[in-house]
Amino acid sequence: MTLLFHFTLFVYGLATAAYLVYFVSRNKMVRTASRSILLGAGGLHTIYLVARYVEVGHTPLTSNHEAVSFFAWSVTWAFLSFRWRYQVKNFGAFVSPLVAVLMLIAAFSSQEAISLPPALQSLWLPVHASVAIMANGFMALAFCGGLMYLLQEREIKKKKFGVFYDRLPSLEALDNLNQHCLAVGFPLLTLGIITGSVWAKQAWGSYWQWDPKETWSLITWLIYAAILHQRLTVGWRRRRAAIMAIVGFSAVLFTLWGVNYLLGGAHSYAG
Description:
271 residues; 2 domains; globular
């Protein structure tokens, strides 16, 4: 099992290297290879998650290793599904390093199987946790798009077109990317909170307990709700939307990790 995970990590590393080589060389054969390698890594990762499920006997989402690994898987397939419909130049050169970093974090986390407490032994576990983390996958794409937007905008404002200008999409394309990712990720994030509330009612008798992770999930939801509201009402676009996508993803990361290690609570798997 560990060998399969490490091999998957290695293939992700190859995909990242290929995307970065394409970013520099702009060789179309390298681009095709990078896509194929990432697709292969995503397939291997799917096999690993299924094998992990068989090994531990429940949906592998309850430890730091499992949650971060599933997060990386979600980012990968969110990106691949996005690439199937849209063309965004060199998007993979920003997404693949993020996936590789997530996989490295998962690799250095304990892979020991955790026995589920009674409250987690529910069909709501795969529904709530998987939907919430898949939402984070699309928010991660919005984050990458936000970084690309700020880099491209900086190139244009300098009027000294450097390495990024020819290699990044137009500002309009990146803003549309941001909007698309939020349009998919926000409903999933909302569904994740709703299913979590229903599960909490079933497990603990209350829809909301103001547990630290519940609270920060709500804060994260409010940030993205504000972004969408401002987009629709006052036309928040471009730079503001890019910055807020980065801020929102920072809240996602704090909800995923910071709460576990700093605040604890019923949802913590920091141990």
